[in-house]
Amino acid sequence: MLFETVSVIPGVFDPYLDASIMGRARRAGIFEFRAHDLRDWTHDRHRTVDDAPFGGGQGMLMKPGPIFEAVEELSSEGPRPHVVFFSPCGARFDQRVAERLAGEERVLLVCGRYEGVDERVYSLADEVLSLGDYVLTGGELAALVVIDAVVRLLPGALGDEASPVDESFSQESGLLEYAQYTRPSTYRGMPVPEVLLSGDHARVDRWRRLSSVERTARWRPDLLEGVDLDEEERRVVEGVALASACDGPGGGVADATPSLG
Ligand code: SAH
């Protein structure tokens, strides 16, 4: 899979994408990455990419010319890229979008800066994505977030093929991930749930499912809509609802494991 960015600070991507899991996946050829400098598509001595907004107002906008020329030239070579723009006004980026993008051969991420881009450039976009309801200084972090979330879904990127399957937001369950523990089995007086030390895989699986249900009910009850729950799982959800009604907001968060012993 090939990711490309068009931005005015093309140097910011490599340090992240060459490190740790991303770096290993890149070196293994699981994904390729090319950062393009938007200023390569300017024609004046100062390599100008921005201009003042019509109608007045503060700040500068990215002008359409360099972005149009960049996207058109890059699209004319090789497989047609899926073109993504970023804006706080875009559709929210989430795990479903990451899963969909993981099926693309080539993704071109166009990163805005300043007060944003001339509205006409969105006619080049296959989609416009937002990371969330806040305003960043530029789209570069958004591009890195998208690349990171998509690459870790590509076969072999995490080393262990099974690992992205039962994670939070995965298509599989629609729930948050279950609570996890590592050694020591007791730390500062806090023991790991006994069942996890039992070696009984069926009981561990059941505990994990209930832990997922409980954590989802506690932190993201909106995700439970449409999830099929059996009777025991529904009791866990009701228990969480009851506990938070008694404790008030945020109550009992530290005690987020089902008592399956
Ligand atoms: N004036 C615009 C914000 C521009 S911020 C507005 O009020 O909507 C400059 C650039 O940062 C944007 O073009 C986009 O590429 C990026 N950006 C800012 N916030 C973002 C967000 N929440 N998600 C994704 N990209 C964002």
Question: Would you kindly provide a brief summary of this structure?
Answer:
Its EC number is 2.1.1.228. The chain has 261 residues and is of the alpha/beta class.
How would you portray this structure in words?
It catalyses: guanosine(37) in tRNA + S-adenosyl-L-methionine = N(1)-methylguanosine(37) in tRNA + S-adenosyl-L-homocysteine + H(+). Keywords: Cytoplasm, Methyltransferase, S-adenosyl-L-methionine, Transferase, tRNA processing. Specifically methylates guanosine-37 in various tRNAs. This is tRNA (guanine-N(1)-)-methyltransferase. It is found in: Cytoplasm. By secondary structure, this protein is an alpha/beta fold. It has two domains: 150 residues, SPOUT methyltransferase, trefoil knot domain (Alpha/beta knot, 3-Layer(aba) Sandwich); 90 residues, tRNA(m1g37)methyltransferase, domain 2 (Trp Operon Repressor, Chain A). It is built from seven helices and nine strands, in the order βααβββαβαββαββαα. α6 crosses α7. The longest helix has 19 residues. The protein is elongated and about 70 Å long. The two termini are 45 Å apart. It binds S-adenosyl-L-homocysteine. The site of S-adenosyl-L-homocysteine has 19 residues, from β5.
